[in-house]
């Protein structure tokens, strides 16, 4: 695939703006592959991120899958929110609920490159995992430059206004309607 021309890139940017998308909130996340959770966690720790000890292959299993790519969007509700409200916000934006795989792979691919000192916590409202104490937990990424981590939070509590949500953007193929071909006066 070749790089887009300036005009093509400009058209893409305008389409994104018209759709109300801020490009600083969109991330492509490579999904699948042969790495399991323990291998990714080891790499994150080696890279300086703190990772909760419960985030293991046993608790958050990743299975070898074909490589793919998802587009995730960070949404700022600009207020505190509950799990139910967060899921409704994602639905209203046309986004789907992320999986824990999105969180783990996002942490690996973007955990050190996305930064905020105001909206520190990137919350992944995936289907909650139940910890040994019976509490429901979801993954989040702390993106403060001095305290980067992949950790767990309790979705039964409200999330503060310093949290943002992650939703998965549906991949819609671009459809171009070709101009009709005419032979004389007939259009095909």
Would you tell me the overall average pLDDT? 86
Count of DSSP E strands?
Answer: 11
Main β-sheet description: 9 strands, mixed
CATH topological fold name = Mannose-Binding Protein A, Chain A
Strand content: 25-35%
Helix/strand-derived category reads: alpha+beta
- What low-confidence regions span 5 or more consecutive residues with pLDDT below 50? 173-177
Put simply, the count of helices is 4
Fraction of residues in helix = 10-25%
SSE string, helices as H and strands as E: HEHEEHEHEEEEEEE
Shape: globular
Tell me what the structure shows.
- The protein has 188 residues and is α+β, with helices and mostly antiparallel strands.
- The chain has one domain: Mannose-Binding Protein A, Chain A, CATH 3.10.100.
- It has helices at residues 6-18, 37-46, 83-92, 100-110; strands spanning 26-33, 50-51, 65-75, 95-96, 121-123, 129-130, 136-142, 149-153, 163-169, 182-183, 186-187.
- Strands 1, 2, 3, 4, 5, 6, 7, 8 and 9 form a nine-stranded mixed beta sheet that branches. It has a two-stranded antiparallel ribbon with strand order 10-11.
- A hairpin with a 6-residue loop joins β7 and β8.
- α2 runs parallel beside α4.
- The two termini are 30 Å apart.
